[in-house]
Design goal:
It is rod-shaped, with a radius of gyration of 17 Å. Helix 1 (4-35) packs antiparallel against helix 2. The chain has helices at 4-35, 46-77. It has 78 residues and is mostly helical. It has one domain (4-77). Helix content is 82%, strand content 0%.
Length: 78
């Protein structure tokens, strides 16, 4: 892509996605803490904890992909 302004805007919006991803990780971590009992960090609701664990892993995948995308865009921009 040769349009520098377009690349800059894509980078800016991708950074916003990255910020949102960070917040999503904070939320899922908080939820996981709420789902665990104080006794040896065992889940209070195993099925629900399993679903949030799956969600957390997918968010991690999205974070990695977003980071890779930002690196690629930044290298093209420079």
């Amino acid at each position: 892509m040769e349009n520098k302004k377009a690349i800059e805007e894509i980078i800016n919006q991708t950074k916003r996605i990255e910020e949102n991803n960070f917040l999503n990780m904070e939320y899922t971590t908080s939820i996981n803490m709420l789902l665990n009992s104080n006794d040896l960090a065992q889940p209070k609701d195993y099925e629900l904890a399993k679903k949030f664990d799956k969600l957390n892993k997918r968010i991690e995948d999205i974070n990695k992909l977003t980071s890779d995308l930002l690196n690629d865009l930044s290298s093209r921009h420079n």
